[in-house]
Amino acid sequence: MSVPALEVDGLRVEFGRLPTAVQAVQRVTFSVATGETVAIVGESGSGKSVTGLAVMGLVDPPGRITEGDVRLAGKVLTGSTESEYRRVRGKDLAMVFQDPLSSLNPVRRVGDQIAEAARVHGASRASARARAIEMLERVGVVPAARRARAYPHELSGGMRQRVMLAMALVNRPQVLIADEPTTALDVTTQSQILELLGELQREMGLALVLVSHDLGVVAGIADRVLVMYAGRIVEEGPAAEVFAAAGHPYTRGLLASVPRVDDARPVLAAIPGSPPDPTALPSGCPFHTRCVLAEEQCGERRPPLHLLTGGHRAACLFADEVSIGARSL
Amino acid sequence: MSMRIGDEAGRARAEAIDPTLLVADPLRTPQDGSEWRASWHRFRHHLLAMVGLGFLVFMFLACFVGVHFAPDPFELNLLEPPSGPSGAHWFGTDVLSRDSLSRVLHGGQISLKVALGVAILSTVIGVVIGAFAGFYRGWLDALLMRFTDLWIALPALPFLAVAVSIGTVDLGPLGSLDLGGPLGITLLLSCLLWGSIARVVRGSTLALREREFVDAARAIGASNTRIITRHVIPNCMGPIIVNATLVVAEAILVESTLSFLGFGIQPPTPSWGNLLSDSIGNLEDQWWLTVFPGLAIFLTVLAVNFVGDGLRDAYDPRRRIRA
């Protein structure tokens, strides 16, 4: 088996100094193969975005990676100097952010901003321009030569996100991290962007990491799903299995809280309470204070990831029972 | 605007055909043509700025071209008494019977050169120091800003008076520099006036560095220097331009003040400041000797401020022109 495009191994990200340091990400391990889509889902503050930034080497002080490795095609990135990391960023490892308007420089033409990504990695001025226009064409911002001269505020939200995609992909990276790429868009635009993302992925053989809180988005395109809670992975597995037979009550809660068109429920099911304060995580399972299935032992020891079926794991003491529906919410 | 109604109808039609035109309005923000043309397009619609620009162009032409057609500013005739404005001497003559218009124009050469030089030099120093301090924060910020405070806190006139009285300094292989001459005054004023720009740019940079497009730039692998020069500074252009024009105005005023007090450009070389100081004692008898240089200072400073206003608007691509 070939080396996965991206491997994250035992990643830990802390903010601040001990003893009051906040652990935003703890022991997160996953890998993404070429052409594969892995979705990281969770609530705000679950550590999913920080994981994405940590892979890019963009965690700002006082945050820092204290443990673990990030490997790109087998090459360890963590611990490399800023200038070494810079050569990888935007070239082999690209990222798309949530809000395309604020992610684009308001006073520069979009074509120049896409070309800059190529320029940074050594393209000549002329070839950078040509590639920028070619990329704009590819992501469906047409007429590309004319739109390249537009400023961000002159484009619609969907077009801006297409521009961001062009900027991220102009150097043909191996790995793309998309942090909530459709959250700032309306529903119809969302589906267009997701479709485009899927096309580009197949075309370029991208390893795609999709960070999202929206399970509807994830269900459509993810091959595998990681569910994060309080900085930890609480469930992982092939998307179909996680959706059909979730082994963690938190995942069940998330799935139950998604509104559906054919929904007969008068009120959406919500997970009670709110995510725990990361400076004072509950003992044992971090979710037990909000879990309707929790028993006494849940507060005593932290459940490890428990293997359910091939590749499907959940960090719950009752994962087997939850998964087959013997214990339900 | 009489075209307004047809204009709106045309847009409505265009929108019905091409939904992308809903956001991009090609009629108001030309997407074809150069960056400068788009900015010029916006600038042209700023009435006061155009008036100010017109006046400055006129002033420059008068001082640097028109002056060759005026009488010799150093030619004196001690027997003639000073005379008021007349056909032969538009701005009158001074106590030495020298042509006052000619002296104002010659003075303008010095004052305008000094002002422009100070604006460019102090802006460059201020932008670099401010952007680096704001972007890197921490100890570099503290160091650079305390250094800036030092220069801001320096009392301008005593500092200049002392520096100018040092006179000519030997710079070794670079030759010598007369601190009281136009170049010396330019350097000294630049030292005094970069502080406010540095502070303004630092403030903007502190806010800009937290913006998402800076993260996006880092995500494409841009270096800090590139982020500062391509992303942070272009976004501060508004305040930078306004400040630069304020500095032009301030440089003219400080140079005038300095010359007025006798520390600046030394007679017989005229500058707007020393023309004022020479004549202020005779304001009642020979009003024209004070009023014309005074007006030159006042109108130039005003025009520069108007132009700055227009430039700020023109540089911002988000700002639509006012019909």
Tally of alpha and pi helices of chain A: 11
The main β sheet of chain B shows up as: 2 strands, antiparallel
Oligomeric assembly: heterodimer
Which class of the largest domain in chain A in CATH terms? Alpha Beta
- Counting DSSP E segments of at least 2 residues, the number of strands of chain A comes to 12
DSSP helical segment count of chain B: 12
Global outline of chain A: globular
What ranges of chain A have pLDDT less than 50 throughout 5 or more consecutive residues? none
Provide the CATH superfamily of the largest domain in chain A: P-loop containing nucleotide triphosphate hydrolases
What order do the SSEs of chain B take from the amino end to the carboxyl end, as H and E?
HHHHHHEEHHHHHH
CATH class of chain B: Mainly Alpha
3D architecture notes:
The complex is a heterodimer of chains A (about 325) and B (about 325). Chain A has helices spanning about 50-55, 80-90, 110-120, 125-140, 145, 155-170, 185-205, 215-220, 240-245, 250-255, 320-325, and strands at about 5-15, 20-30, 35-40, 65-70, 75, 95, 175-180, 205-210, 225-230, 230-240, 305-310, 310-315. By secondary structure, chain A is α/β, with parallel strands linked by helices. Chain A folds into 2 domains: about 5-220, Rossmann fold, CATH 3.40.50.300; about 245-325, no CATH class. An 8-stranded mixed β-sheet of chain A has the order 6-7-8-3-9-10-12-11, sandwiched between helices. In chain A, strands 2-1-4-5 form a 4-stranded antiparallel β-sheet, with helices on one face. In chain A, a hairpin with a 2-residue loop joins strand 4 and strand 5 (about 75). Chain A is globular. Chain A starts with 5 loop residues before the first strand and ends in a 5-residue tail after the last helix. With about 325 residues, chain B is mainly alpha-helical. Chain B has one domain (about 35-315): MetI-like fold, CATH 1.10.3720. Chain B has 12 helices and 2 strands, in the order H-H-H-H-H-H-E-E-H-H-H-H-H-H. In chain B, strands 1-2 form a two-stranded antiparallel sheet. In chain B, helix 10 (about 235-260) packs parallel to helix 11 (about 270-280). Residues about 1-35 of chain B have low confidence and may be disordered. Classes of the chains: A alpha/beta (about 325), B mainly alpha (about 325). The interface of A and B includes residues 94 and 95 of A.
